[in-house]
Amino acid sequence: MRWVFVLLLLSACCPSVDFEDASFCVEFADDPEERTVGLMYVDHLPADSGMFFIFPQEMPLSFWMKNTLIPLDIIFLDEDMRVVDIKHGFEPCMDEPCESYTARSSAKYVLEVNSGLAEKYGIKEGDRAVLRE
Question: For 12-59, how does the pLDDT look when each residue is reduced to its tens digit (9 = 90+)?
Fold first, then answer.
């Protein structure tokens, strides 16, 4: 596991993506390399934490779980930080071909969190998130 990621998540003051009833401490993936690697090879994601992907513009986005070791919920957000789609319980994939998932609407941001948390916190399409840095 990447120790920098763990230290960031354990820090008392971390950037967060907040919904009405949930707050997720996040690491940013805001350049092409970070977006490509994402949560690959991470074997544990602390509760209420995640990775926040930032794309240069709103566009159709597809994600896959190649070399991802933990199941995730993938929350797609538009440029106004409104949820446009959620992929619940996306399962890990170690061997190609890996399933990919394309959001039903264009998105600019994606939040990956532990599987089941979107449902646990009642996050749904149309909800608005706030990024706190």
Answer: 569 999 999 999 999 999 999 999 999 999 999 999 999 999 999 999
Residue ranges of domains in the chain: 22-132
Contact 104, 85 (CB under 8 A): yes
pTM given for the model = 0.89
What does the DSSP 8-state code read for residue 3?
H
Q: Which listed CATH number (2.60.120.1140, 3.10.310.10, 3.40.190.10, 3.30.450.40) goes with 22-132?
A: 2.60.120.1140
Cis omega (within 30 of 0) on the bond before 97? Answer: yes
Size of the chain, expressed as the number of residues it contains: 133
- 72 contacts 90 by C-beta, under 8 angstroms: yes
**Tokens 């009833």, residue?**
21
